[in-house]
Amino acid sequence: MQELSKRILNGDRRAAARAISYIEDDHPLKQTILQELFPSTGKAFVMGITGSPGAGKSSLVDVLVAYLRGLGLTVGIIAVDPTSPFTGGALLGDRIRMQRHATDPGVFIRSMGTRGSLGGLARASKEAIRVLDAFGLDVIIVETVGVGQSELDIMHIADTTAVVLNPGGGDTVQAFKAGIMEIADLFIINKADLSGTNKLMREVEQMLDLAKHDAAWRPTIVQTISLQEKGFEELWEAFLRHRKYLEESGEGERRRSKHLREEVLEIVDFRIHQQMMNKIKQGAFGDLLEQVGQRVKDPYEAADVILKDYASSK
Question: Domains of the chain, with CATH numbers?
């Protein structure tokens, strides 16, 4: 076993941080480390926090972490940030807002850029969560960028997904259009001291009556006020109720198994794409792509040629 893997399993914080950096940089040792850590994963409770920009997700996570630490639980935070299309850098605003946890050995905070991925969750985020799981954290919170449809990606990684809404923000209609209503396991009405909270509660209840969801679990609605640190005991209890449901119904095991099967296909898709892009960068298919650009060939015909070339090279 790699020395780095051993250190992670022994709770070495620097080793975990380095492994995540390896993941982000696609280091040659990344796969070996993840393979070695995999048998020690699947223990942490992974909680997804998503919602529209301005809903107060980061402030809510900050207070939730403090509450969980008060219970003696160790917490990991993966903050998936928007990535600049020019520099590829992630904005670290979430880490700035969580400064009070920066020196707490029981909290591990990591910001990760989406790096142009089609969804709000970077592919590397799943692997980073696996590292923190093997590292031994009790709870891992994934806070996403909140950009609508792409947030559906969170359902492929979290055990429990919470959608944060605001009174008077028009969030319910937007969430319903994005399909988030169907993947939320619970709803958090943050800034519940603002007017319109009761109206928002009714709107969410009405939409839940229309939306498709697991017949055995109707999403809970919890009110919080982050600035006053109110409602967080009820929020944690709601998370625990859903976790209990997952365990007792077998839905949790089914979800995790489904996520892992999907991940295999994602890895295959990524590697095929990577191999084809490398060939194109080396000059392959240049004439073919030029013919498509000139409308001599259609994209489907060209794709068939590339796939046949890939199959014949195996």
Answer: 41-249 (3.40.50.300), 261-312 (no CATH)
